[in-house]
Write a structure and sequence with these properties.
Layout (H helix, E strand, L loop, with lengths): L8 H4 L13 E2 L11 H11 L13 H10 L7 E5 L1 H11 L6 E6 L3 H9 L3 E6 L9 H11 L3 E5 L11 H10 L3 E5 L20 E6 L1 H5 L5 E5 L1 H10 L7 H11 L2 H23 L5 E2 L6 E5 L5 H10 L2 E2 L1 E2 L10 E5 L3 H18 L1
Parallel strand pairs: 1-11, 3-4, 3-5, 5-6, 6-7
Antiparallel strand pairs: 2-8, 7-8, 9-10, 10-13, 12-13
Helix pairs in contact: 3-10, 4-5, 6-7, 12-13
Amino acid sequence: MPISSLFRKEVLAMSAYKVADARGLIKLDAMENPYNWPEDIKTSWLKTLKDCPLNRYPDPEAKQLTETIKHLNRIPDQFDVLLGNGSDEIIQILLMALPSDACVVAPTPGFVMYKQVSQSLGLDYHGIPLLTDTFELDLPAMLAAILQYQPSVIFLAYPNNPTGNLFSEASIREILKVAKGLVVIDEAYSPFADASFMSSLPEHNNLLVMRTVSKLGLAGLRLGYIAGAPEIIEQLHKVRLPYNINSLTQISAHFALSNKTLFDQQTQHICTERTVIFNQLQALKAITAYPSAANFILFKTPANSANKIFESIKQQGILIKNLSSQAGPLTDCLRVTIGKPEENIAFLNALKNSLNQLI
């Protein structure tokens, strides 16, 4: 039986999400926190896992962890939270709950999973280009798309991935006023940005705020969450598979978030290093670095040189992200995650060597 007769045409037309092999390389490609835990924190964590009842199913609603998340994120009491196996699962849950003819809108370039999951489910997805020079929302184009397509969901990453910038708060509030469907503010990089819409939940009945602990320093746990009105979260729970947050993740995330001071310190180190790298990139005449409120920096290389520079940096033992193949405003663009100081120095030296090779 031919494969084409077994799967939907939308799935057949897609490409799988691929993760680069980073073995033996300094890994600066995936927006991870580069810092591990001190030994005393690791020891305390292992003690909490000792009595984990692995023979039993986990708490299906992860009640203790949910309460910790609500408290630490100052989520208003009248709003509920749904947990997911990373933000990816939450995006999938939300889109699976929509009618089959629903429309999804998001700015482009943006987080690839909005489009990937939408298309895998056969939904009508529309990417609205950002302003080329600033990567800011094209508000007239967004408002026109809302009027034309009447989307069931609009995704807005804040800060945006892969560009790193914070969209205009005024533009987002205008979208919230005009949109009749749900507006999801994806705050995956909120630890590095002094901005959030979490406190605005009471102002908009169509607002959902989504976050993850991955960028904070817990990428291996695969835990995301979304906050919103109880009547909306209730519908999402119907689609969520049972026991989607395993016992080890629940215990580990609760322990980690109870040691928030450690992550606050690491976040500050990353933000400090972000400033250093940005200034160093700006000093390179051949490079255009874009301001970032996240834990990565997008930068443009000389015309038609991104692939060569990416491979040269990789040959020097450092893996960053090549975005040039996405074309459009990302043509000639590379993205580097902020690492430890010594990793950042190694990256900058490798970049300078690569640029010298082009001369």
